[in-house]
Amino acid sequence: MLAITPPPSSPDDLLFARIANDLNHQGYTVIPNALPDTLASSLFDQVRDLDSSAYSEAGIGRQNDLTLNQFVRRDEICWIEGKSPAEHHWLQWTAGLQQYLNQHLFLGLFSFESHFARYQPGDFYRKHLDAFRGEANRRLSVVTYLNPGWLPEDGGELVIYDIDSDEEVVRVTPAYGTLVVFLSEEFPHEVLTAKRHRHSIAGWFRVNGSCNERVDPPR
Ligand SMILES: O=C(O)CCC(=O)C(=O)O
Ligand SMILES: [Fe+2]
C-alpha cells in the first residue's frame, strides 16, 4: 500500500523530524550546525554586545547557599524574555519545535523557559540532572552554543551520562550552532571547565504542573 506523507510545512520540519526521531529512539540528540543561520547570528550579536550587568550568578534549584552553589556551578545567566528581536526569534523557533514534538511524540509540552549562560575561563557546571523523576515538570532540556572557532584545547565540553550505568554517552563540543536536546529526567550531565569564554543558551520545556487551580509558574 502507498504510504502518504504530508509535505513538510515549514523549513524547520526536517530538522524537527530528526530531533523527534532521535528523542524517540535514544532520548537525546546532538546536531552540529542545527540553528538556522539568521537565528544563530542574531543571538550571537546580542550575546557579544550583552553587558556584564545583564548577567547574574546562576543558582541550583532551591539551594541558596552561595559556597555550595559555587562548588556546583560557576556560570552566570541572563533569562530570555523575548524583549529583543533575537530573543523573540528564538522563542518563536522553540515554539515551533514544541508544537512539532507535541504533534509527533505527544509529549504535552506546555511552556518553555531559557537563559543565556556565560562561562568565564575556569568556570564549570558539575554533574547534575535538570529534573527529578516524578517531582519536577521539566521534560526536555535544550542547549545551543554561540562560540565560533571553538578548539579542543578550549575545553568546556558538555558530557552526558547514562543514568543507570553512569557511563559517558556523548561528549559535545560547544561549537557555534550545535543543538543538544535530551530528556531532562533521564540524563545526568556536566560542563567541563572552560578555558575561554563560553556562550550558550540553556532552556527547558515543561509540562503543566498546575493543580488545585494554582497555576504553575513558568519558572
Ligand atoms: O551549557 C551546557 O552545555 C549545559 C548547561 C546545563 O547543563 C544547564 O544549564 O543545566
Ligand atoms: Fe543541565
Automatic annotation (TrEMBL):
SMART domains: P4Hc. Transmembrane segments: none annotated. GO terms for molecular function: ferrous iron binding; L-ascorbic acid binding; peptidyl-proline dioxygenase activity. GO terms for biological process: cellular response to hypoxia. Coiled coil: none annotated. Keywords: Dioxygenase, Iron, Metal-binding, Oxidoreductase, Vitamin C. It comes from the Bacteria. InterPro entries: HIF_prolyl_hydroxylases (IPR051559), Oxoglu/Fe-dep_dioxygenase_dom (IPR005123), Pro_4_hyd_alph (IPR006620), Pro_4_hyd_alph_FE2OG_OXY (IPR044862). Its cofactor is L-ascorbate. Residues 105-207 form the Fe2OG dioxygenase domain. Its EC number is 1.14.11.-. It is an enzyme of class 1 (oxidoreductase). This is 2OG-Fe(II) oxygenase.
